[in-house]
Amino acid sequence: MRLVVLGGGESGIGTAILGKKKGYDVFISDGGTIKNNYKEVLALNKLSFEEGLHTEDLILNADVVMKSPGIPEKSDIVKKILKKGIPIISEIEFANQFNDVETIGITGSNGKTTTTMLTHHLLKQGGLNMGLAGNIGKSFAWQVAEHKVEGYVLELSSFQLDGVVKYAPHIAVITNISPDHLDRYDYKYENYIAAKFRITMNQTEDDYLVYDADDEAISNWLGENKVKAKLIPFSLSGKTKKGVYVKDDTIISNIKKVKFTMPINELSLEGKHNVKNAMAAISVAQLKNIRKKTIMESLSNFQGVEHRLEKVLKIQNVEYVNDSKATNTNSTYYALDSMTGPTVWIVGGVDKGNDYNELMPLVREKVKAIICLGVDNAKIINAFNNVVDVMVETTSMAEAVKAAQKLSEKGDTVLLSPACASFDLFESYEDRGKQFKAAVQNL
């Protein structure tokens, strides 16, 4: 069996290693450049690859193709593979056929990394030996090839779910759905929503779907489509008394007839969105029979996720907050919503079809100055020109942070929450966040 792997990143390398171990004839093809550390792994494992091009003769003879999530369906080579009738699957689908332990799959437009890491933390503290993979850390395929665990907590993007055929998590979580990546879904929101719900399409009556009952897109979809899995809702608004809900500033869970309560102010993570992330994690922990005391302790000592509302430093009584992971307006909405004082907001990058109107009330209420950080800031300037008094354009992180320091005073917060992808000026949102932290430390 010939396995062709498109893309020599984390998921591609993991798939290649697992494929070779399972007896496939493996070839990796990357249209760009493969990082040196991955090339070393390929050499060590005696895997053949190419970079900077796609040689059709070496690709179109595949029995199966694993496409990395970053490669769009519209790319020429993908079209040619599909035309030949060769199946294209995701790394999750490929690895899952060799995985014999259960998985917990977590998706959503925002909060999925925090929810995934928090869920993993709860289960680990509860004594379960769980792998952590998907859109995070070492790839699922790599771990299936190299490790033995009791189960996996997987963070799954819509791109990863697009390539799923038979994969079904035992517990699926959908944190929320808001418009994102619409450029990959023909600018149709319903296509993106359908991609997220692929997480439950192969689930059975013995499986669970945990979801935000307050989320309009989720509620509408569930109203129009049948799901086999048992439904476990969570709600901040008191819409449901099933699953997990909030009453009198206390989280209450009735899952599996074991009542769990925890005051919101005892959570280590701040902000309404993090209450929801905690409710999703509690749902999973209770389904996995983790002790109540362990759940409470884990929720109060969890450290949070880098680049997600991460407090960097306080300088001259100005708080600097790194929220570089906010790559869409919905994510930035949560960040602005959790600001308590006047805010200097650093925003901008590669716009993925953003509608800034939803941020207007929060910007009017909380933002005293906007610093644009991107190659093209026209859309941001047009949106907020009449809303804030001060707008500055910058093209480097050091320049943006210096401008923020000049514009901020005692009691303010400087918030990097770009609402955009990072690829115009940075390698990734991680690179953007690290540059922000370095620039703040240099002040």
TrEMBL record:
GO terms for biological process: cell division; cell wall organization; peptidoglycan biosynthetic process; regulation of cell shape. It is an enzyme of class 6 (ligase). HAMAP family: MurD. Residues 106-285 form the Mur ligase central domain. It comes from Flavobacterium subsaxonicum WB 4.1-42 = DSM 21790. Keywords: ATP-binding, Cell cycle, Cell division, Cell shape, Cell wall biogenesis/degradation, Cytoplasm, Ligase, Nucleotide-binding, Peptidoglycan synthesis. The gene is murD. Residues 307-420 form the Mur ligase C-terminal domain. GO terms for cellular component: cytoplasm. One of its GO terms (molecular function) is ATP binding. ATP binds at G108, S109, N110, G111, K112, T113, T114. It comes from the Bacteria. Belongs to the MurCDEF family. Cell wall formation. Catalyzes the addition of glutamate to the nucleotide precursor UDP-N-acetylmuramoyl-L-alanine (UMA). It is found in: Cytoplasm. It holds the Pfam family Mur_ligase_M. Its EC number is 6.3.2.9. Pathway: Cell wall biogenesis; peptidoglycan biosynthesis. The keyword Plastid does not apply. Its main location: cytoplasm. It catalyses: UDP-N-acetyl-alpha-D-muramoyl-L-alanine + D-glutamate + ATP = UDP-N-acetyl-alpha-D-muramoyl-L-alanyl-D-glutamate + ADP + phosphate + H(+). This is UDP-N-acetylmuramoylalanine--D-glutamate ligase.
